[in-house]
Design a protein that fits this description.
With 163 residues, the protein is an alpha+beta fold. The protein has helices at residues 3-6, 8-41, and strands spanning 54-59, 67-72, 75-81, 87-91, 102-104, 120-123, 128-131, 136-138, 147-152, 157-161. It folds into 2 domains: 3-45; 54-161, Rieske Iron-sulfur Protein, CATH 2.102.10. 23% of the residues lie in helices and 30% in strands. The strands form 2 sheets. It has a 6-stranded antiparallel sheet, with no helix packed on it. A 4-stranded antiparallel sheet has the order 5-6-7-8, with no helix packed on it. The mean pLDDT is 88. It binds FE2/S2 (inorganic) cluster.
């Protein structure tokens, strides 16, 4: 054995270093376990819900049959213009289980189940189909997409509101 291995001072220093290292690692490990629990229980962790009842989308010039998604507060919605030129808006939250629906120019194209035609809305989660007014016409959705009120100001600003 070398002199270095038998030196009692070196042995004590190594033992202290190992003790501090293991204690530090144990502390980090315990902190990593406690952090998510403390964060979950923290009163500052509550989800903030913002109830938006009206939103100004600015000037929107959509062609007949075109659509544009927008955020109505925390929820998705779709502004669209019917083939007749009427500007409408519906919630894009599927009335089945809450997936986001998309606007489709042609409901006869795959993956939409056969038997539908024209423009409308489609939910890819369980193949839910809505007509161009948001009425549920296929798949599991139990109700139409909620419709919002759309007003166009003199300066062209489009405002969508819940009532
Ligand atoms: S969530 Fe839309 S069809 Fe099921």
């Amino acid at each position: 054995m070398s002199d270095l291995q038998n030196d009692p001072i070196d042995t004590i220093k190594r033992r202290k270093f190992l003790t501090y290292s293991l204690r530090t690692l144990a502390g980090v490990w315990v902190a990593s376990l406690l952090y998510p629990i403390v964060k979950y229980l923290s009163p500052h962790n509550k989800e903030v819900t913002v109830d938006v009842s009206e939103i100004n989308l600015g000037v929107k010039e959509l062609a007949p049959g075109a659509a544009e998604p927008f955020a109505f507060g925390p929820k998705p919605a779709i502004l669209f213009k019917t083939k007749e030129g009427e500007l409408k808006a519906v919630s894009a939250v599927c009335t089945h289980l809450g997936c986001t629906v998309v606007h489709k120019d042609d409901l006869s194209a795959p993956p939409i189940p056969a038997g539908h035609k024209g423009a409308g809305f489609f939910c890819n989660c369980h193949l839910g189909v809505y007509d161009e007014n948001g009425k549920n016409i296929g798949g599991p959705p139990p109700a139409p997409l909620p419709e919002f009120k759309v007003t166009v100001a003199e300066n062209g600003d489009v405002t969508v509101s819940k009532s």
